[in-house]
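Hi R.,

As promised on Friday, here is the backbone we talked about, encoded as structure tokens. Could you run it through your design pipeline when you get a chance and send me back a sequence?
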């Protein structure tokens, strides 16, 4: 899929609330799905932004409006007008480079979260991020997704099958279920990251290569990338589970505490992997230094052994008319034997000193 990316500088000079998509465009088409449900069943259908106000009036129970794709500013403005969303909320939805955050507008809450996955780029698998924007009202939840919306596939299945208490609860429980689904998906990324860290650690100990250093830096960047998104998430969920908003019932707040515990566990795991990656860089430098010192030691030993041999060869290579043993028939072999004895004696001395 072709992606076009815009930077924040494109909004320079524009008034607040202007809808300009910031970030990589992952879907050029906007799809809207309306699902209203209660204890008796679920009614779900695809609608357009123009049809949405009338369909909302006819719907009963809790309403879930899922918007997939952020390519149409006009559609977003119609949705904002239907639910009386502040222009700054719509602006933040279109800016997909937001950090996780929570904003309370009184009648509704606006939450920004991140989902992660692996994508193949330049023959390497790298972590990619998608932004999920959620709006919680009294009897509705709006979800804005950048791409295909696989994040809520299991949640949609539970909703249609009637498993759990989601159809017996209000919009706040639906909001909690979405946040829980996103947080649970982080464990999949952490397991993959942990496997990559273990494989890299094994390679580092056994036979580090120049490519190992590149892998260490890539792993370090991924840890920093995850940490930058997970630390604000902790504050978001902590603010929700404190119960400051009347939109959340006491029952849902208990479930949010469990999500908060999961978030703390994930952050601690990322911090551990981050420390391990930092130590890997030190191990790599030490390993390379040790290999270089080993090579230098061998070369030094060879040079030391050949120094007296070079001295003898240099002496007997001088062009004087008289040298001891120069006319002796066995002189050449005696000199070679002397060199051999000296070499073996020095080699034995180095081994006895445990220099080899």
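Update: got your reply. Pasting your designed sequence below so it's all in one thread:
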């Amino acid at each position: 899929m072709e992606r076009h990316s815009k930077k924040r500088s494109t909004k320079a000079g524009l008034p607040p609330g202007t809808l300009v998509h910031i970030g990589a465009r992952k879907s050029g088409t906007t799809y809207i799905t309306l699902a209203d449900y209660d204890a008796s069943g679920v009614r779900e259908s695809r609608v357009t932004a123009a049809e949405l106000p009338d369909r909302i009036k006819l719907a009963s129970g809790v309403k879930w409006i899922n918007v997939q794709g952020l390519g149409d500013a006009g559609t977003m403005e119609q949705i904002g007008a239907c639910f009386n969303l502040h222009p700054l909320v719509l602006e933040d939805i279109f800016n997909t480079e937001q950090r996780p955050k929570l904003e309370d507008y009184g009648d509704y809450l606006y939450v920004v979260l991140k989902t992660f996955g692996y994508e193949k780029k330049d023959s390497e698998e790298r972590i990619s991020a998608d932004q999920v924007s959620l709006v919680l009202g009294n009897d509705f939840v709006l979800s804005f997704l950048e791409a295909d919306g696989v994040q809520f596939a299991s949640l949609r299945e539970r909703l249609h099958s009637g498993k759990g208490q989601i159809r017996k609860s209000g919009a706040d429980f639906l909001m909690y279920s979405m946040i829980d689904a996103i947080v649970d998906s982080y464990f999949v990324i952490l397991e993959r990251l942990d496997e990559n860290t273990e494989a890299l650690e094994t390679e580092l100990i056994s036979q580090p290569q120049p490519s190992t250093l590149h892998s260490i830096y890539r792993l370090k960047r991924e840890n920093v990338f995850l940490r930058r998104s997970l630390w604000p998430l902790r504050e978001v969920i902590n603010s929700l589970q404190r119960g400051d908003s009347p939109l959340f019932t006491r029952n849902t707040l208990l479930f949010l505490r469990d999500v908060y515990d999961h978030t703390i566990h994930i952050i601690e795991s990322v911090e551990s992997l981050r420390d391990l990656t930092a130590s890997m860089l030190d191990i790599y430098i030490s390993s390379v230094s040790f290999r270089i010192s080993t090579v230098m030691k061998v070369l030094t030993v060879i040079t030391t052994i050949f120094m007296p041999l070079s001295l003898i060869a240099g002496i007997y290579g001088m062009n004087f008319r008289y040298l001891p043993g120069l006319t002796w028939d066995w002189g050449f072999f005696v000199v070679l034997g002397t060199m051999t004895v000296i070499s073996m004696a020095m080699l034995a001395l180095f081994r006895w000193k445990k220099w080899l």
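One thing I noticed while checking it: DSSP finds eight helices and nine strands in the chain.

Thanks again,
M.
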